Amino acid sequence: MTAKVIKTRRAQLTPKFDTAPVTVLVDDSARLHEIRQLVQFNNKSSLDENLVICQIYMESRFDANATVAGSTAKGLMQMNKGAVQQVYKYRKQQELGHMPSDLQTHQAFAEGAAMHVSSSMFDEATNIQLGTEYMQYWIDKAGSLEEAYKLYRGLSNGVYYKKIRACAEKLKADPGSMQPLRDMAK
């Protein structure tokens, strides 16, 4: 049985020697809308959704498959292995109402490590859930939101939080605009 050709089209191909860059206009506000919906449905923290959106952009530029050479950070929120393990331990602590035993901690860390090596780390909803749970851990532990962001990022100067907070304020005023995110990332 042969395949029936429904329609053909002839077009001139770009010659190999033509390597001039071409500007392609992309409406990335659609991706912002997708991320906003994901955050609305998967935010496991007390953080304002605009803060989470700005944090995601700062970490991964909305690339669900983002990784960094020499790091275990993965996905939209760049969750590393230790952070995922901490989320699993924190879940166990919340479930028990007290610190888990050494055995329970070991089991939680093993579950977190298994999650980290799974393809689920690149699932956008899962990554946002884990990232926002990790942020909530630091919010609960720290005295302020600024301190929580310092602990999340491992930086003591507060620049990370200041950039995210300023971006979130601008994004709140114009929720469909990518410009505050682009300006933050400069």
TrEMBL record:
Query: Which residues belong to any copy of the Transglycosylase SLT domain?
Result: 43-152
Pfam families in the record, alphabetically?
Answer: SLT
User: Signal peptide position in this chain?
Assistant: none
Query: What InterPro entries does its record include?
Result: Lysozyme-like_dom_sf (IPR023346), Transglycosylase_SLT_dom_1 (IPR008258)
- Which protein, by its recorded name, is this? Soluble lytic murein transglycosylase-like protein
